[in-house]
TrEMBL record:
<dbReference type="InterPro" id="IPR036220">
    <property type="entry name" value="UDP-Glc/GDP-Man_DH_C_sf"/>
</dbReference>
<dbReference type="InterPro" id="IPR017476">
    <property type="entry name" value="UDP-Glc/GDP-Man"/>
</dbReference>
<dbReference type="InterPro" id="IPR036291">
    <property type="entry name" value="NAD(P)-bd_dom_sf"/>
</dbReference>
<dbReference type="Pfam" id="PF00984">
    <property type="entry name" value="UDPG_MGDP_dh"/>
</dbReference>
<dbReference type="Pfam" id="PF03720">
    <property type="entry name" value="UDPG_MGDP_dh_C"/>
</dbReference>
<feature type="domain" description="UDP-glucose/GDP-mannose dehydrogenase C-terminal">
    <location>
        <begin position="334"/>
        <end position="449"/>
    </location>
</feature>
<dbReference type="Pfam" id="PF03721">
    <property type="entry name" value="UDPG_MGDP_dh_N"/>
</dbReference>
<dbReference type="InterPro" id="IPR014027">
    <property type="entry name" value="UDP-Glc/GDP-Man_DH_C"/>
</dbReference>
<comment type="pathway">
    <text>Nucleotide-sugar biosynthesis; UDP-alpha-D-glucuronate biosynthesis; UDP-alpha-D-glucuronate from UDP-alpha-D-glucose: step 1/1.</text>
</comment>
<dbReference type="InterPro" id="IPR008927">
    <property type="entry name" value="6-PGluconate_DH-like_C_sf"/>
</dbReference>
<keyword id="KW-0560">Oxidoreductase</keyword>
<keyword id="KW-0520">NAD</keyword>
<dbReference type="InterPro" id="IPR014026">
    <property type="entry name" value="UDP-Glc/GDP-Man_DH_dimer"/>
</dbReference>
<protein>
    <recommendedName>
        <fullName>UDP-glucose 6-dehydrogenase</fullName>
        <ecNumber>1.1.1.22</ecNumber>
    </recommendedName>
</protein>
<comment type="similarity">
    <text>Belongs to the UDP-glucose/GDP-mannose dehydrogenase family.</text>
</comment>
<dbReference type="InterPro" id="IPR028356">
    <property type="entry name" value="UDPglc_DH_euk"/>
</dbReference>
<dbReference type="InterPro" id="IPR001732">
    <property type="entry name" value="UDP-Glc/GDP-Man_DH_N"/>
</dbReference>
Length: 466
């Protein structure tokens, strides 16, 4: 079967970039991305490409080339489902905040709503693709809904998890390490559905990198990949604390172990803690799945990755307080960065939020500068924690659009995100504008220690005591 029409439900960080790249690489396919969020769709359609809802290097260019040619953004979900031969479900699957599995399990209500809508609207056979990250065996629940609610049409369900990382989404989509497609290979229809999706990716991904598996392996591989990646970060962060006590330098340790080809050099940067919408959510989900099968040792093993990450965030703020003579009350601390990593405006689970919350509880005054994150987003992140009234967050924390203003008169600077521009600031002038002693707490280890110490800063880098 040759696919000519695709619908993607969910115009978020995954749906938007993924579909833009499919549209670019497959001009013969009409791709419609739909969402219930009208403002988000309006932003995807905005004339000014600076106003797209998601910032990703290279994305605006692709949208410019494809939008209104074979890429469309719409709120008419029924129409897009009806027209499409293949439907991607790319809705959010956050951690449950209520009921059984609260704080751990994935909340599948958005996926179920999607499945019910597809079932209700479809009058012809469809291939339904799980793009969202889902607990293993979700496809069987989706199939049950589609088959029982639908109009007697045939649905094939595929799992096609997305491995893109934010900030490099376009490059990851154009040159993926692999594309994973799980499907029912035991029936002819299942086989055809898998092949239809393979054929789409084969327009730009070498065949050897398109991996087909059974549905359950595909679903579980996504959770496994994120658990392994996060585990590497927690492992190197655990070593960063030992480094600080012993005089070893975590950067040197990372380099030394990364040159072992069995370990490899990536994902060994010690940090103030991992953030992002995926790692914590997906590990908690994995822990929950293990617990539901009674695999308590497995659950404990993976939960430790989260425990270590929480510890890393807390010990970073604790270190600021203790270094500033055990009180930060009334002291100004400048935050460079709020996003969970560089080159994205996404702040979900960013370490900066927890570090700020801890310091605000110590009555610090914080001034934040981030090149891409809005003031509204920063306040919303803090208010969401409900640690203190919203008015108090607004009084204690201000957001600046100029980094030099944020640092002026500060007692300390905390680097929370590894934005490249931070390296090129005029640090001499920042030093002159600060309270003395002028402290820098580099939660990403990106600044030049020698240069800063020469200027006069007291410089603390995660994972180093020298
Ligand atoms: P997101 O919150 O940015 O986008 C999800 C969108 O789905 C929202 O705009 C929401 O309005 C829409 N939506 C929800 N229910 C809907 C419905 N019934 N009908 C129409 N639209 C609906 O989420 P995201 O970051 O794009 O993540 C989506 C999925 O992809 C999640 O399962 C996530 O775990 C997974 N994932 C995310 C990333 C990432 O880097 N963000 C990477 C890989 C996988
Ligand atoms: C992650 C996975 O990498 C991606 O494959 C999946 O599809 C979604 O989740 P993402 O969360 O966008 O992607 O970014 P990633 O680059 O993995 O970084 C996650 C967090 O770990 C960030 O806060 C980052 O700063 C931190 N990190 C990463 C480190 O602290 N050290 C590292 O060495 C690498």
């Amino acid at each position: 079967m040759k696919i000519k029409t695709i619908c993607c439900i969910g115009a978020g960080y995954v749906g938007g970039p993924t579909m833009a790249v499919i549209a670019k690489q497959c001009p013969h396919i009409k791709v419609t991305v739909v969402d219930i969020n009208e403002a988000r769709i309006a932003a995807w359609n905005s004339k000014n490409l600076d106003h797209l809802p998601i910032f990703e290097p290279g994305l605006a260019d692709i949208v410019k080339q494809t939008r209104d040619k074979n890429l469309f953004f719409s709120t008419d979900i029924d129409k897009a489902i009806d027209e499409a031969q293949m439907i991607f479900m790319s809705v959010n699957t956050p951690t449950k905040t209520y009921g059984k599995g609260k704080g751990m399990a994935a909340d599948l209500k958005y996926i179920e709503l999607c499945a019910r809508q597809i079932a209700r609207v479809s009058k012809q056979n469809k291939i339904v693709v799980e793009k969202s990250t889902l607990p293993v065996r979700t496809a069987s629940a989706i199939k049950s809904i589609l088959d029982n609610v639908g109009n007697d049409v045939n649905f094939q369900i595929l799992s096609n998890p997305e491995f893109l990382a934010e900030g490099t989404a376009v490059q990851d989509l154009l040159n993926p390490d692999r594309v994973l497609i799980g499907g029912d290979q035991s029936t002819e229809k299942g086989h055809e559905a898998v092949q239809a999706l393979v054929d789409i990716y084969a327009n730009w991904v070498p065949k050897a990198q398109i991996l087909t598996t059974n549905v359950w392996s595909s679903e579980l591989s996504k959770l496994t990949a994120n658990a392994f990646l996060a585990q590497r970060v927690s492992s190197i962060n655990a070593m960063s604390e030992i480094c600080e006590k012993t005089g070893a330098d975590v950067k040197e340790v990372s380099k030394a172990i990364g040159m072992d080809s069995r370990i490899g050099p990536k994902f060994l940067n010690a940090s103030v803690g991992f953030g992002g919408s995926c790692f914590q959510k997906d590990i908690l989900n994995l822990v929950y799945i293990a617990k539901t099968y009674g695999l308590n040792e497995v659950a404990d093993y993976w939960e430790q990755v989260i425990i270590m990450n929480d510890h890393q965030k807390n010990r970073f703020s604790d270190n600021i307080v203790s270094t500033l003579y055990n009180t930060v009350s009334g002291k100004k601390i400048a935050f460079l960065g709020w996003a969970f990593k560089k080159d994205t405006n996404d702040t979900r689970e960013s370490a900066a939020i927890k570090v700020a919350d801890n310091l605000l509880s110590e009555q610090a005054e914080i001034e934040v500068y981030d090149p891409k994150v809005s003031k509204e987003r920063i306040y919303a992140d803090l208010d969401y924690l409900k640690t203190r009234p919203s008015e108090e967050n607004k009084t204690l924390l201000t957001v600046k659009t100029d980094p030099y203003q944020a640092c002026k008169n500060a007692h300390a600077i905390a680097v929370l995100t590894e934005w490249d521009e931070f390296k090129d600031y005029n640090w001499e002038s920042i030093y002159n504008s600060m309270q003395k002693p002028a402290f820098i707490f580099d939660g990403r280890g990106i600044l030049d220690k020698q240069q800063l110490e020469k200027i006069g800063f007291a410089y603390y880098k995660i994972g180093s005591s020298n």
